[in-house]
Every structure is written in C-alpha cells, then in structure tokens.
C-alpha cells in the first residue's frame, strides 16, 4: 500500500494518545485511511446514553478534500439521512485543509447536540422536527434506545 | 374549430397552398412541380429555410462588440432575391392565416464566450473603480462574491462598505481576525474549530504558546512568498526548508500545500480563502503562489457559474466541444413563442443551431413540449432500441437535454453545469467519489414494475399504442440515421467545391450552390424527422392531420430526390445539372416550410398535443 502521508500518521497518533472525550476513532488494520468511529450521544440530547457507530474514510486527496463520514447506526436526526449521510457544511463546501479528523468528529457530536432542521438532509425528519419538536425528540430517543449501543 | 378562411398563398414562385375553413381538401398542400411553377435558378434562394425564419422572426441584433462572422447571414443582404421571393410570402402567410396576430417578436441575442463576458466584467470594474476607490483586484472579488451583479453590490456597498470588505475577506479586521469571522454565519463554525484546535503536531507547546498572538496582525506584514529553513507546515506536517506563503493573518503554509490547495479550487470559480481563516486570496496572490497566471482560470470558472446561475438569459451551446454562450437579452418574448408554437431557435458563432428553451437541435415542426414528450417516451419505451436519444436525459435543474457519454453515472449538465447522478437524478455531491453508491436505482425499478402492473387494464390497448409508437419511432430513427449520413456528405462538400474550382475553373461563389443544397438537405431531413413526433401526437382522424401526412410524404420525396442528386461525383455532371440542384433545393425549401407551418397549425389548433 502507498505510504501514508505524514499528516495522517500524526493525526492518527494523536487520536490514540490523546483521545477526545466521548469519541473513539480506530484505524482499520488493513487500511489506515479507514477509521471505525464511535460517538457518544451528548448529555441532554435525545441521543444521550447511546453510542453510535460511524465510518470515516480519508480520500486520497485528504487533507485537500474532506474526510467521508457516515453513520452506521440508525439515527433519527434532521441532518442525517437513512443512509447515514451527514449534512454538515465543513464536510462539503466549507471544508478547509486546516481542519482535522478530530475537529470533524467534534462537529458531528455538536450536530447531535443541536440539530438544524432548516438545513435538512432527511426532509421528512426535518419536517417532523419543525412541526412537532417534542414528538420528533421522543422518536429520536426511541431510536437511540432501539439501535444505538448502551453506555454502561 | 374556428371558421376563418385562410390560405397559404405563395406568389408564383412558391407553392400554392390553399385551403379554407372546415373542409381541408386533401390536395390543398399539393404542389405543382417546380418546373411548372417556373422556378428559375435566378429565383432560387441561397439560404435555408431556418435562416429565413431567423431573418424574419428573430433577426439578430448585432452588437458592435458582437463577433458575428456569419457569412451566410451577410449574404442575405447582398442577395437581390431575398426580399422578393421568400420573405414576402412568409408575411403573407402570417397575415392571411390570422394565426393569433401572426408573428413572434424578434429574438435579440448575442453569441459570447466566457472570455467575452469576463472582459465585460473588467469593463464594469473600470467603471466602478472611481466609486469604490479600492484596488481593481478587490472590486473583482466583490463582484465575484455577488455573482457579478453590479446592482446588488452597489446596494450593499453604500450601506456597509467597511463590514463588507471584512466579511468577504478583502480586508483583515483590525486586531483580531476572529471577531470579523464571528459576524459571518457559517464561517464561524470553521474558524471556531480551527481556533479551538489542539494542534496534532509535535511542536505542540510552541503552537499553544502562539495561540493568543497568532491572529494578531503585524502591520508590516505583506502578502508574499518567503523562504524558510526548517519550516513546519501544519497542513502536510512536514518539516522542511521551503518557500512559504502567508497573508496578513500570518497563517503560513508551505508553497506546495498552497499550490495543491489552489489548484483544486481554480475550477470552482469561488473566492479562495486562506486555509486558516476567511481572508481572501487576490488574483495577484494566486499568480504569485502558482508561479504563473492561474487566476484567469479562476475568473473564467467564476464566469461559468455566473452563466449557469443566469440560465434564463444565458445558454451554453449544446454542441460537443463548443464553448459558445448565447445571451438572450430579453426573455419576455419566450411565452409568445410557446403560445404560437414557435421555438426560439438560435445560432452560435460556429453556426450551431439549437433551441434556446430546450437545447435540442432545430426541432420544428415539433414545438418544445412535443419534442420533450417524444424524447421522454423514446427513453422509456425504446431502451432496447439502439438510438442516441436513449443516451440523453433532461437536466433535473434546467431541463436542457444532455447526453451520457460512456458508463460513468456522474453527469455534468452542458448548459447549467449542474452535477447529478444519472441513476437517481439527484445532486451528485452526496455520491462522492463512489464512496457512496447510488441506492435509489432499486426503488426506481420497483416503481416501474408497479406502474406496469397498474397500467395493464387492457393489454391489447398497450400493445396497440406500442405498435403505433414503434412505427413512428422507426420512421424518426430512419431519418436520424439518414441525417447522420447526410451530415457526413456535408463534411465533404468543401472538397467537392474545391474540385469544381480546380477541375472546371468554377469560382468559389458559383460553387456555393452545392453547399446550399447540402444545407437544405439537412434542414429538410431534420424537419422530416421531427414531423414524425408531431404526427404521433396528432389526432389521426382529423383532416388536417391527413394533410400533414401528405406533406410529410411530399417532403420525404423531395429530400430523397435531392439526396440522390448529391450523390453525383463527377464534377462535369454536377455542373451540367446545376439547374437541377437549384430547383430541387428550392423545392425542398418550400416543402419544408409548408410542413413546418402545417405542423404549427396542428399545434395551434390543439389537434396535436402531448397526451
Ligand atoms: Zn505543507
Ligand atoms: Zn489566515
Ligand atoms: Zn456552438
Ligand atoms: Zn425547443
Ligand atoms: Zn442543466
Ligand atoms: Zn444516485
């Protein structure tokens, strides 16, 4: 396999040696550009007590191109569609090479804490969220209960 | 049916096409033989019918700066027969037909390139400079930010010029960059993130130490390249002796990272910012970093996105490898065109003719609605038939039809540059670099199955309509294939003319009758082809439809005759039969026009309609 850019090595080292609270990111042993990620649902959010699986992939052009991230655990969220794709500006047009894996994951965690139904990816969920926020949150909580790992 | 009487009356040199109100005599479109009509070569018109239509109804508004070198167009003015023999009859037709006050307004358009448009923008900058009183480069960035919309920029400018310069990243805010960024919605999140960064790099202590001073702007700082020994670049994490670049913000990165970063962004046309904050790179900075003038690429990309954002007035020429942009100055006449079932055909500087509304080739007698309906149907029903239109799809954004070339599902619309997925027709962005596969394909399949099962109320009906369609489709296809062959013929016509010149000493001008013949053949063939779409959607029991079909066969015969004539290779025989060429070409021209008008009549009367 092609040699890994220094940038990726450094980031990986630091993710292991100095992990972000509530987030784990482990590179796949066969492909060091592929990470298995878990994010804890933020306290006070409908995702609290759930642990969500994600996959993260660093494309060849990283860091000029944003990492590709996707939820593997089913989640009810207006900015995450049923395929787990995430609507987040820094993953698309507002990506900057100065951002990192760490900052991306932190942003996703922040997105769980404060969903943005006005910039939806999952339209039906967003609609639900706007019309009946409490109901939507309850459903998100149910889904967390159903699909996410339990925090012990 | 309205009861007005009308006739298609051409003068003696033209077909006499007459029929009156409720009864449509079958032979009313029938023509006398061109010889009987006494068409002499003098009476023949050099130009093709569509050119006449353009001349008549959509006269080019030629700007001073317009680079129109359309020689056939210039000929119009030199040609003494133009006014007498052809143009008149058209207006007569219009008046007598009483087709809702007859005519469509002129289409005013110009043919441009991105370079032309950019030059216009530079002129704007020049014009704005005394008002703005900032460097022209900065005005360019402002215009770029406001999609080259001068009015909008001026509005905002007077209200809040200082804020604007900071927001768009032209000026650093005094003191701390972050304060300016905080005013700007989305940007905030990034810079917050960047600022809160705990550097992943090994010289962490150093970075942390700098953290507070990092965004202080040294007044003396200039935007330039410098050489640093043992520079640690936070983008590539390499420590090396290298050239670096930084803006006033002091975010310094190695030159190779900067180049890589810019290279990727030149094609977006968006303002390129510092990798660490929102300060904008000016064209000068870009050229400095890249080591050669690269900013023009960025500017032209930005113009491209300007064109796509203004796709009501601007359309890319849909022909492959043509970079022309047609700018329709006034779109207010387009509804009138569609009301009268005319199509707004335009012609680029490379003489590519297309419909401004749908981006197709000239599709008269079909209007845009019939054309699109036909193409859609062809796509749905003829997947097993090997035909070019099954490789086209309507752009989900601007509805221009674009062609799929090869197996890649990543489609880029030739008109508005929208990127979408061939399979699901959704935005391409979330598909990424094949990291996500399109998953909507399966659903589509299911839908089709469902549709089929609900539609089978009567299998025979389905079969019947399929049979009917297959017939018209085959006819259409046949002419499509022939048109391609004719086109190849046309590619050689220049050589043929040369041969006449060399072997027989014929002047170039005199040899042009061949070029005109081949052009008319193409026009006739195309009209014939699309007439099958019209025929398919027409009420077959109606008399006018029957007349239309008679006209089809007349044109068909005329086209085949001309085509046969054009097969002649011997230059001497060609010259001997020159009169024949004139006559047959003129006949095709008249028949084409008659078919187009008859088709338009079917449409105006609602005898031909989609569904
Ligand atoms: Zn670097
Ligand atoms: Zn900066
Ligand atoms: Zn063109
Ligand atoms: Zn059209
Ligand atoms: Zn388009
Ligand atoms: Zn798709």
Automatic annotation (TrEMBL), chain A:
Residues 3-149 form the UBC core domain. Keywords: ATP-binding, Nucleotide-binding, Transferase, Ubl conjugation pathway. Pfam families: UQ_con. The keyword Cell wall biogenesis/degradation does not apply. SUPFAM superfamilies: UBC-like (SSF54495). PANTHER family: UBIQUITIN-CONJUGATING ENZYME E2 (PTHR24068). This is E2 ubiquitin-conjugating enzyme.
From TrEMBL, chain B:
PROSITE patterns: TRIAD, ZF_RING_1, ZF_RING_2. The keyword Transferase applies. Residues 229-442, 233-278 form the RING-type domain. InterPro entries: ARIH1-like_UBL, E3_UB_ligase_RBR, IBR_dom, TRIAD_supradom, Znf_C3HC4_RING-type, Znf_RING, Znf_RING/FYVE/PHD, Znf_RING_CS. This is RBR-type E3 ubiquitin transferase. Residues 17-36 are annotated as: Disordered. Keywords: Metal-binding, Repeat, Transferase, Ubl conjugation pathway, Zinc, Zinc-finger. It catalyses: [E2 ubiquitin-conjugating enzyme]-S-ubiquitinyl-L-cysteine + [acceptor protein]-L-lysine = [E2 ubiquitin-conjugating enzyme]-L-cysteine + [acceptor protein]-N(6)-ubiquitinyl-L-lysine. SUPFAM superfamilies: RING/U-box. One of its GO terms (molecular function) is ubiquitin protein ligase activity. Its EC number is 2.3.2.31. The keyword tRNA-binding does not apply. It holds the Pfam family IBR. GO terms for biological process: protein ubiquitination.
């Amino acid at each position: 396999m092609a040699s890994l850019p220094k940038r990726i090595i450094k980031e990986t080292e630091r993710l292991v040696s100095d992990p972000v609270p509530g987030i784990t990111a482990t590179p796949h042993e066969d492909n060091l550009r592929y990470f298995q990620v878990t994010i804890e649902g933020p306290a006070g959010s409908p995702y609290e007590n759930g642990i969500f699986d994600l996959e993260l992939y660093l494309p060849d052009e990283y860091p000029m191109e944003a990492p590709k991230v996707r939820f593997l655990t089913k989640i009810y969220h207006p900015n995450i569609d049923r395929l787990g794709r995430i609507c987040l500006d820094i993953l698309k047009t507002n990506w900057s090479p100065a951002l990192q894996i760490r900052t991306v994951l932190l942003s996703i965690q922040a997105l769980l804490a404060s969903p943005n139904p006005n910039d939806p990816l999952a339209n039906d969920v967003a609609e639900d969220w706007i019309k009946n926020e409490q109901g939507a949150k309850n459903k998100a909580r149910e889904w967390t209960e159903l699909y996410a790992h339990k925090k012990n | 049916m309205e009861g007005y009487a009308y006739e298609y009356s051409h003068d003696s040199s033209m077909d006499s096409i007459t029929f009156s109100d409720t009864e449509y005599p079958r032979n009313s479109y029938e023509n006398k033989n061109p010889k009987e009509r006494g068409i002499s070569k003098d009476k023949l018109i050099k130009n093709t019918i569509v050119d006449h239509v353009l001349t008549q109804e959509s006269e080019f508004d030629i700007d001073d700066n317009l680079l129109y070198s359309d020689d056939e167009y210039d000929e119009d003015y030199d040609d003494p027969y133009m006014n007498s023999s052809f143009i008149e009859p058209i207006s007569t037709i219009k008046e007598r037909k009483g087709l809702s006050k007859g005519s469509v307004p002129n289409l005013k358009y110009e043919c441009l390139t991105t370079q032309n448009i950019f030059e216009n923008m530079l002129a704007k900058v020049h014009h704005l400079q005394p008002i703005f009183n900032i460097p022209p480069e900065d005005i360019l960035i402002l215009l770029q930010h406001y999609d080259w919309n001068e009015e909008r920029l001026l509005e905002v400018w007077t209200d809040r010029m200082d804020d604007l310069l900071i927001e768009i990243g032209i000026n650093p805010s005094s003191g701390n960059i972050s304060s300016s960024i905080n005013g700007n919605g989305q940007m905030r999140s990034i810079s917050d993130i960047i600022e809160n960064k705990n550097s992943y790099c090994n010289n962490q202590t150093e970075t942390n130490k700098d953290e507070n001073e990092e965004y202080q702007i040294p007044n003396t700082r200039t935007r330039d390249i410098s050489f640093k020994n043992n520079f640690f670049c936070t983008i590539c994490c390499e420590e090396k002796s290298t050239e670096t670049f930084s803006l006033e913000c002091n975010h310094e990165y190695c030159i190779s990272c900067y180049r890589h970063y810019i290279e990727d962004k030149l094609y977006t046309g968006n303002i390129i910012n510092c990798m660490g904050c929102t300060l904008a790179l000016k064209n000068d900075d870009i050229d400095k970093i890249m080591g050669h003038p690269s900013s023009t690429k960025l500017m032209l990309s930005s113009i491209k996105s300007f064109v796509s954002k203004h796709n009501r007035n601007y359309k890319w020429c849909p022909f492959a490898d043509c970079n022309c942009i047609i700018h329709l100055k006034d779109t207010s006449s387009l509804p009138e065109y569609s009301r009268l079932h005319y199509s707004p055909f335009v012609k680029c500087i490379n003489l590519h003719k297309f419909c401004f509304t749908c981006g197709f080739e000239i599709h008269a007698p079909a209007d845009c609605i019939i054309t699109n309906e036909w193409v859609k149907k062809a796509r749905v029903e003829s997947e097993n038939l090997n035909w070019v239109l099954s490789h086209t799809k309507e752009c989900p954004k601007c509805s221009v039809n674009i062609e799929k070339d090869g197996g890649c599902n990543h489609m880029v619309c030739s008109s508005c540059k929208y990127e979408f997925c061939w399979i699901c027709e959704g935005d391409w962005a979330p598909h990424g670099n094949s990291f996500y596969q399109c998953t909507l394909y399966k659903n589509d399949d299911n839908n089709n199955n469902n549709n089929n099962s609900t539609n089978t109320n009567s299998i025979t009906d389905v079969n019947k309509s399929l049979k009917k369609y297959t017939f018209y489709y085959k006819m259409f296809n046949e002419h499509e294939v022939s048109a391609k062959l004719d086109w190849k013929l046309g590619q050689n016509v220049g050589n043929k003319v040369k041969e006449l010149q060399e072997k027989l000493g014929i002047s170039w001008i005199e040899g042009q009758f061949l070029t005109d013949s081949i052009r008319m053949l193409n026009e006739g063939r195309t009209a014939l082809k699309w007439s099958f779409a019209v025929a398919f959607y027409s009420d077959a029991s109606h008399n006018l439809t029957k007349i239309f079909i008679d006209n089809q066969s007349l044109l068909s015969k005329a086209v085949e005759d001309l085509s046969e004539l054009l097969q002649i290779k011997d230059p001497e025989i060609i010259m001997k039969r020159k009169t024949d060429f004139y006559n047959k070409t003129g006949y095709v021209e008249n028949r084409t026009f008659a078919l187009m008008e008859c088709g338009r009549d079917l449409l105006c009367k609602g005898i031909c309609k989609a569904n």
